[in-house]
Amino acid sequence: MTHRDRPDARREGESAVALGPAGVASGLRVGLSLLLGVAVLVALMVFGDLHAMARQLRGFPWGWLPAILGLTLLNYSLRFLKWHLYLRWVGAALPWPASAAVFIAGLAMVLTPGKLGETVKSFLVWRLRGTPISATLPVVLAERLTDGLAMVVLAGLGISVYPAGVPVLGGILFGLSLLVLVAWIWPQAEPFLHRLAEWPILSRILPALLRFYESAHRLVRPLPLLFAIGLGLISWGAEGLAFALILHGLGVPMDRSLVQRAVFTLAFATLAGAVSFLPGGLVAAEASLAGLLLVQGLPREIAATATVLIRLATLWFGVALGALAWAWLVPGLWRTGSARVRPAGLNLPDPAMRTDDETAYRGGRDDPAGG
Length: 371
Hints:
Elements: H1 7-17, H2 20-48, H3 50-58, H4 65-89, H5 96-107, H6 120-129, H7 133-157, H8 166-184, H9 186-195, H10 200-203, H11 206-219, H12 222-249, H13 256-276, H14 284-295, H15 300-333, H16 356-362
Helix pairs in contact: 2-15, 3-15, 4-5, 4-7, 4-12, 4-15, 5-6, 5-15, 6-7, 7-8, 7-11, 7-12, 7-13, 9-11, 12-13, 12-15, 13-14, 14-15
C-alpha cells in the first residue's frame, strides 16, 4: 500500500483540497501584502528624499547587478538543497525538477503573515507524490528553524555594531532552541502521544500527529541539524555579501568591516521581520535595515536607497521567481481529480513504486499511525 492509497493520507489530502476558499483568501492577503510593500517603498522614498535617492541610483554601478542577484540565487540554491534533502530524509523524495518547482513556488508565499503560506509546499508535495501533509509540514518548519539559527549566528558575529540587540538575539536563540528540544525528545514523547488515543477526539488526529513528530525528530538530529545550519551560514552570508556590494556601490568604502556590518545588519533585520509575523517582514525589516544603517553613521539617502535595493534584490526577486513557478506548476496541480493528478512536464515517479527513502521512513509498516 502506498502513501497515496492509505485512508489517512487521502483524508488529509481531501481536507486540503476542501480549503479552496481559504486559498482564495490567501490570494487576497498576498494582494494586500503587495500593496503594503508598495506603501513601504513609497515611505522609504519620502524618508530618504526622492531627489537625493535618485542621485544615488544614477551613480550606482548597475553592472554589479548580476553579481548581486547571483549571490541571492546562491542563497536560494543552497536553501533548495536543504529542502530537497529534507524531503528525502522524511521519505518524501521528489525528482529534482518537481522539488525545485515546489521550492521556488514557496518563495512567493513569504508574503503571508509569519511566512505561514509556505506550508502550501506540503500540500503541493501531497498532490505530486501522495505523502501525507503531516509528514512534510516539519520540513517547512525545519527550514525556518535552521535559517533562524544560522542568522542568529551571523548577527552574533557582528553584534558589536549594535550591542543593544543582544537581548533580542538572546530571546530569539532561546525560542529556537526550545523548538529544537521539543522535537528532539520524540522518543520520550511518543508513549505519551499514544496515550492520547484513549480520548475519542484526539485519537482521530493521532496518526497525523505521530507522523508530524517523527519527521520533526528526524530533522533535528545532531548531524542533519548542524549540516542545515552550516548551509544557512553560507546561504545567508551570501546575501549579506550582496548587501555589502550594494553599500559599496553607494559609496561606502569596501573593507572587512563593511562586510561584517552588512552581514550583521541584514541578518538582524531579517530576524526582526520574521518575529514581527508581518507579511514578508514588511515594515519591520525595512525599518530595521534603515535604522541600523543610520546607527552606523550613514546618511539618510544612502540608508534608504540601500534598503530599497536589497529588498528588491532579495524579497521581491524571490517573489517574482515564485510567481513564475506558480504559473508553470499550479495549472497541472489544480486539474479536476484527486491527488493522482500529475502536472504535465514533470517527470514524476510511478505512484505504485516505493522508493528506498519511503521504505526507510515507514519502517516497512502500512498502519495509519506508522507514518
